[in-house]
């Protein structure tokens, strides 16, 4: 009996110690002995929020049979909360992990990713789009993360409607009309007169309300920059709604998706609707590069071939995935080989473009591909050329760690004004209060 | 006393000491039995609770480790006391929970009375019990997604149906109006959880001796009399349990309102409940210190509400008993 208690206590203790100290599932702690793939093989663990890396992993493993890569996908909504404790503690941290623009600027200032300049990646910088490269560099000048892609945005529009209303479907000519906010709204009026709607919702003009001299949301003194250009979003959005240039189909709603395929019902906002006017057809939508493959090509098959993409009044980007090596990884060399293939290997990147249609940040391959490319979905347009040119215009110095959250809050306040729930002053006051509440360090302007 | 007697006494005393020792040793055993629970409780409950309190005294951002955070004393608590967003979140939570509980308890009680009625003798209780409980086992994320599609402004089935039946002229933007959005969250919550309450109430009602009802009917009592004079008083402990568990759960309502709209409480902050506010302060805005203070605020509010409920119901129960003795 006495012995059995001792044994039970020992077992209990052993189980607890194993549970607390186990590191068998941590890629970062894998040393030479713990590499389970056999003699001389290396196990790499990659954490990401998308399955985009499945293809490069497949190629890398083919090229390096002694490397086994375990891609662990964590859903976007849980990604930060799941990964950050592992990165903070080092327990269960992967060898490589990706990061989104939403939290990228926070993460590069931490000791999560190693400085890739230990592998002299700065030598590659001339080959990359400036904004993509610079966003991976922290204030100390360390290169923490790289990205293989670029995500500038544009206005995707229906060629048939453009042809009917404007007499042309040429992206350059349409882009010329859309190069100013006034031009965009004039086009909205022409479309409305012909029975079409410029955009599904007012959010489509948000990226173009930064003005010609964009300022970051928050300056170096931690002051919120409410420029006249930003304030103009209120008026432009209201004009779009009141003049019926938008179709009351909020982004990512079923109506928004449907608007890419067919006339949609939109009689939800106006008091009086003439008989037979319950539906309308939407002309275009603002989306970044990835919108072509992730939204239009997947959800707008009925209109395939009828699309083209052109510029709005100003250049912008939305989203993007950066990748780096965990500071504490024991397999940094192999991890770097993988990243090098992913972002800098011309042979692989050429295959990648053919496979996915992604727009790359690596210019030599993009310029090569863009020389002679046409996309059937976009009526034969060479969108690579267009997006590269837009990406060159993006200024990374205007990007702040607050952007996405402030954009969301500002969009909600503008929405309340457009819906007629608040006056402009009330909406602005509400926005400032929310900013102050979420980010107490930011100084907000005085309300009127 | 001869030698043999001495030996016997000595042997007895040795046996007694040995028995005492064994008894004393046996006293240690329960510690082993409870050790797993205590270890898990200390590690996963007490430690995080204390750590959260420590976080609440700092300006921890969740980045770079707690050692990089500054100690700010009770600054976060002072901010919480004057935070209008927190009060808004509190009242939103109470409104949503209140409507949800009223609908839930009414339906559950109605059904429980129906199925326990001695004169009606309804059949198929087990089938209905399973059917009523079914929404409870669907994940809240699925329910939120399902309803946000059903309630979609232009393409939702509900609006399509109402338009087809000519009950409305134009689609209603259910989730863009603060009152409607709160109402829907309360209603969906009630739909999900009334089955659970129904089962608990049924268990309570079936525990009431049938003699009470028979005697009451013989004495000429009607349905209302038996409900107010027998069922409700006898169900009081069960109702107390239902109310307290509901208020504790209700004050923590999170996933449904989070997933129904933008996760920040849209429309116009109407779905910003206390836990959503706590979550966003911590995980969206990286104010982990303040978020921890909100958690303690929520904890105190929950204790106060539970204590009030318990006191009120317990006091009235004591009164009933005292009255009975007279």
Automatic annotation (TrEMBL), chain A:
What residue range is the signal peptide? 1-21
Q: Which organism is it from?
A: Alkalibacterium subtropicum
Task: Supply the PROSITE patterns for this chain.
Answer: PROKAR_LIPOPROTEIN (PS51257)
Question: How is this protein named in the record?
Answer: ABC-type glycerol-3-phosphate transport system, substrate-binding protein
Q: Which UniProt keywords apply?
A: Cell membrane, Lipoprotein, Membrane, Palmitate, Signal
User: Sorted alphabetically, which InterPro entries does this protein's record hold?
Assistant: Bact_solute-bd_prot1, SBP
* SUPFAM superfamilies listed in its UniProt record: Periplasmic binding protein-like II (SSF53850)
Q: Which residues cross the membrane?
A: none
Q: Which Gene3D superfamilies match?
A: Periplasmic binding protein-like II
Automatic annotation (TrEMBL), chain B:
Q: Name one GO biological process term.
A: transmembrane transport
Q: Where are the transmembrane segments?
A: 31-55, 96-116, 128-151, 184-205, 238-254, 288-310
All copies of domain ABC transmembrane type-1, residue ranges: 90-309
Q: Which domain of life is it from?
A: Bacteria
Q: Would I find Cell membrane among this entry's keywords?
A: yes
Q: Which GO terms describe its cellular component?
A: plasma membrane
Where is this protein localized, as stated in its record? Cell membrane
The UniProt entry lists membrane topology as: Multi-pass membrane protein
CDD domains, per the entry: TM_PBP2
Q: Does the keyword Acetylation apply?
A: no
Family affiliation: Belongs to the binding-protein-dependent transport system permease family.
Protein name, per record: Multiple sugar transport system permease protein
Q: Which organism is it from?
A: Alkalibacterium subtropicum
């Amino acid at each position: 009996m006495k012995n059995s208690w001792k044994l039970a206590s020992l077992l209990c203790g052993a189980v607890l110690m194993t549970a607390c100290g186990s590191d068998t599932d941590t890629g970062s702690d894998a040393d030479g002995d713990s590499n389970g793939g056999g003699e001389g093989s290396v196990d790499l663990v990659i954490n990401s929020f998308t399955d985009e890396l499945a293809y490069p992993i497949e190629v890398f493993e083919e090229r390096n049979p002694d490397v086994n890569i375990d891609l662990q996908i964590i859903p976007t909504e849980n990604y930060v909360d799941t990964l950050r404790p592992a990165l903070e503690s080092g327990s269960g941290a992967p060898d490589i992990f990706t990061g989104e623009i939403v939290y990228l600027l926070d993460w590069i200032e931490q000791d999560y990713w190693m400085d890739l300049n230990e592998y002299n990646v700065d030598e590659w910088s001339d080959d990359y789009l400036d904004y993509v490269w610079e966003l991976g560099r922290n204030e100390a000048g360390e290169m923490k993360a790289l990205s293989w892609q670029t995500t500038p945005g544009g206005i995707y529009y229906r060629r048939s409607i453009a042809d009917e209303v404007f007499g042309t479907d040429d992206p350059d000519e349409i882009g010329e009309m859309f190069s100013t906010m006034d031009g965009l709204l004039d086009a909205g009026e022409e479309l409305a007169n012909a029975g079409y709607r410029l955009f599904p919702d007012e959010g489509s003009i948000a990226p173009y309300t930064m003005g010609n001299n964009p300022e970051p949301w928050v300056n170096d003194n931690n002051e919120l920059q409410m420029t006249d250009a930003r304030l103009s979003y209120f008026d432009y959005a209201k004009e779009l709604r009141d003049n019926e240039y938008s179709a009351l189909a909020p982004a990512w709603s079923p109506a928004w998706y449907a608007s890419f395929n067919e006339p949609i019902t939109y009689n939800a906002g106006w008091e009086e609707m003439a008989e037979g006017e319950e539906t309308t057809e939407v002309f275009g939508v603002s989306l970044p590069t990835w919108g072509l493959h992730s939204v239009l090509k997947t959800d707008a098959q009925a209109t395939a071939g009828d699309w083209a993409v052109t510029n709005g009044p100003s250049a912008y980007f939305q989203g993007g995935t950066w990748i780096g090596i965990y500071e504490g990884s024991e397999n940094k060399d192999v991890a770097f080989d993988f990243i090098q293939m992913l972002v800098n290997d011309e042979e692989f990147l050429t295959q990648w473009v053919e496979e996915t249609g992604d727009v790359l940040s690596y210019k030599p391959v993009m310029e090569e591909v863009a020389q002679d490319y046409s996309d059937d979905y976009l009526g034969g347009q060479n969108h690579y050329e267009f997006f590269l040119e837009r990406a060159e215009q993006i200024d990374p110095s205007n990007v702040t760690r607050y952007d996405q959250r402030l954009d969301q809050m500002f969009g909600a306040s503008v929405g309340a004004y457009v819906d007629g729930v608040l006056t402009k002053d009330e909406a602005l006051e509400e926005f400032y209060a929310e900013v102050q509440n979420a980010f107490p360090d930011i100084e907000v302007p005085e309300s009127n | 006393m001869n030698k043999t007697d001495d030996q016997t006494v000595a042997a007895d005393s040795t046996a007694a000491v040995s028995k005492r020792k064994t008894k004393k040793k046996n006293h240690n055993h329960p510690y082993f039995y409870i050790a797993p629970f205590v270890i898990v409780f200390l590690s996963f409950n007490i430690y995080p609770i204390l750590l959260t309190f420590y976080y609440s005294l700092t300006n921890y951002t969740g980045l770079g480790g707690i050692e990089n955070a500054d100690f700010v004393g009770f600054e976060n608590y002072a901010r919480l006391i004057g935070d209008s967003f927190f009060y808004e979140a509190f009242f939103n939570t109470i409104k949503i929970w209140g409507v949800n509980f009223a609908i839930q308890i009414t339906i559950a009680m109605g059904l429980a009375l129906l199925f326990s009625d001695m004169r009606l003798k309804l059949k198929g209780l087990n089938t209905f019990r399973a059917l009523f409980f079914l929404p409870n086992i669907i994940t809240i994320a699925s329910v939120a997604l399902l309803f946000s599609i059903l309630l979609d402004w232009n393409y939702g089935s509900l609006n399509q149906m109402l338009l087809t039946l000519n009950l409305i002229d134009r689609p209603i933007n259910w989730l863009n109006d603060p009152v409607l959005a709160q109402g829907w969250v309360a209603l969906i919550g009630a739909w999900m959880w009334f089955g659970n309450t129904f089962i608990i109430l049924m268990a309570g009602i079936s525990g009431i001796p049938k003699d009470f009802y028979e005697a009451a009917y013989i004495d000429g009592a009607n349905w209302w009399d038996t409900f107010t004079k027998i069922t409700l008083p006898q169900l009081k402990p069960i109702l107390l349990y239902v109310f307290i568990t509901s208020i504790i759960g209700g004050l923590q309502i999170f996933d449904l309102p989070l997933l129904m709209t933008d996760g920040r409480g849209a429309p116009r902050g109407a779905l910003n409940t206390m836990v959503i506010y706590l979550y966003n302060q911590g995980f969206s805005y990286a104010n982990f210190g303040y978020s921890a203070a909100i958690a303690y605020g929520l904890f105190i509010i929950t204790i106060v509400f539970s204590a009030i409920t318990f006191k009120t119901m317990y006091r009235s129960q004591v009164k009933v008993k005292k009255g009975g003795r007279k």
